[in-house]
């Protein structure tokens, strides 16, 4: 499987990268970066460092958007730390990002191997929207897209109703979700139930090796923050779950296939992801996306642990 | 229990009236009417006729708002028939509505018996919003308010995200839900699971008496429409469930107590009811309301059948 990852590392992005980098069946064809969990300069630097740490230094990293299409960016230093990785220092490397932007790299790769590349989008969807603007046939040129983003029946995580990645660039999300990709939206509806809890964290802590060591240190920081939300020592594995669903759609045990919109106005609801979940939805003009509603959490967590070993 | 009913009969309103009229412990102190399921002239006429049919001709009926506070009204003749009662003719009576408006009657009754009157709101919330404007102390002057309206995690019934009563007057709903009433919002989240299905409808059909006979004929029409939504012969008992919850809060087996807002702008979400369902909601300035999430449906349906006997 040839995978392009668009991401904003970010602690859970780092774990998703570790997961995919460890999969022998995965060829990482490129990594795009975007503002989100930290500024794009930081997420780009992190992506380069992490790929070296995960022994994939040959993967091209392309810096992407520094800000959303329309609004001002809102970064999540309170969740991921000022350096995007919970203050944990990953060794610096000599490698530089490529000169193309993330959107240009994605378009070039997709054109060069039509129908072959899967896209995993783990941050705000700005780069994908830009790629779509550069190449409107992108939905036909890529294989599948898995997006971590949105909250449909679940509460939001940056407003009571909106999820961070979608809320960070609602216009981009609205464009991407309506573009006709073969797209799976891994929303808070499932990621907030894919929790790494104490027993799993202890198993991780018992693992030897640099990869597991860094994962544990990243997660220590992340869990500290999540404890204030969840009321117990645990954290949501948003991006790793999306990576796992890309690798194996069978992890999704229940889903609906529905058109999804993003509210762009709204006093309270700007940035909210909206799915028509009525028993008989109206046939709309918008292509539906797959919205997982149940996933095999324990199988996912076992696989994560195996990948970090 | 002294109850003021604000309603737009309406087939399920008619059943809620039948239910409360049959309860020996309930004193109906007044009925206000509003546009919604039909025009206010029609719902007023229906309320007068139904109270006679249910042997409560002494209850004062006050005609209320003919249109929402801001937008144009949208009537539901396709669900309730042109006469609001599925084309079933209920005998006309000599009685006339009182000269006060519904809002004025409610305010006068509340002032005359502070803390004693419960309000059951079964239509758009225009009359309650007007009453609140006439008497800002209304939340302190009435006992409890039960509102049938809204859709929080459930899909809407007039748009994919909005429920008819709230969507019919979003400004009124926003005012009422934020006014500080001791308020229970019986939303589609529970009413769409309180279905009258074939076995119950057959039990109803087997009952003797005028009250049951009319109920069956109303429901025959209503079920015909609902079959197109539900894919089987059944219907949601929205208003009767709200009446039952007013009479006995114990029918609610699970609920959350949360601030609820109504989106007033929004391209897709105007009229949507929004509750902050995050694990740790922000402390807001808005008073919370009770939002039932589970009800004892079979007990409710048994009680309905008993009341129609």
TrEMBL record, chains A, B:
InterPro entries: Inosine/uridine_hydrolase_dom, IUNH, Ribo_hydro-like. GO terms for molecular function: purine nucleosidase activity. The keyword Hydrolase applies. One of its GO terms (biological process) is purine nucleoside catabolic process. It comes from the Bacteria. It holds the Pfam family IU_nuc_hydro. One of its GO terms (cellular component) is cytosol. Keywords: Hydrolase. The keyword Acetylation does not apply. This is Nucleoside hydrolase. It comes from Thermobifida halotolerans.
């Amino acid at each position: 499987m040839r995978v392009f990852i668009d991401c904003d590392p970010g602690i859970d992005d780092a774990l998703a990268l570790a997961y995919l980098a460890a999969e022998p069946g995965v060829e990482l064809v490129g990594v795009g970066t975007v503002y989100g969990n930290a500024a794009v300069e930081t997420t780009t630097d992190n992506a380069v460092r992490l790929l070296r740490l995960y022994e994939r230094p040959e993967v091209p990293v392309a810096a992407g958007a520094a800000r959303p299409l329309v609004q001002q960016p809102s970064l999540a230093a309170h969740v991921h730390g000022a350096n995007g990785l919970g203050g944990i220092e990953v060794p610096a490397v000599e490698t530089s990002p490529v000169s193309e932007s993330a959107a240009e790299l994605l378009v070039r790769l997709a054109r060069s191997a039509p129908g072959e590349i899967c896209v995993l989008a783990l941050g705000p969807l700005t780069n994908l929207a830009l790629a779509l603007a550069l190449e409107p046939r992108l939905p036909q040129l890529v294989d599948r897209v898995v997006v971590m983003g949105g909250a449909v029946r679940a509460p939001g995580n940056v407003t009571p109703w909106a999820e961070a990645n979608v809320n960070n660039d609602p216009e981009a999300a609205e464009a991407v979700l309506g573009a006709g990709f073969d797209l799976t939206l891994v929303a808070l509806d499932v990621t907030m139930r894919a929790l790494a809890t104490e027993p799993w964290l202890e198993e991780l802590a018992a693992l030897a090796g640099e990869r597991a060591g860094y994962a544990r240190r990243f997660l220590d920081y992340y869990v500290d923050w999540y404890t204030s939300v969840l009321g117990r020592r645990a954290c949501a594995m948003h991006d790793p779950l999306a990576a796992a669903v890309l690798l194996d759609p069978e992890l999704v045990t229940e889903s609906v296939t529905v058109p999804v919109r993003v509210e762009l106005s709204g006093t309270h609801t700007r940035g909210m992801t909206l799915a028509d979940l009525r028993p008989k939805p109206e046939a709309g003009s918008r292509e539906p996306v797959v919205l997982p509603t149940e996933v095999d959490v324990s199988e996912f967590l076992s696989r994560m642990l195996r990948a970090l070993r």
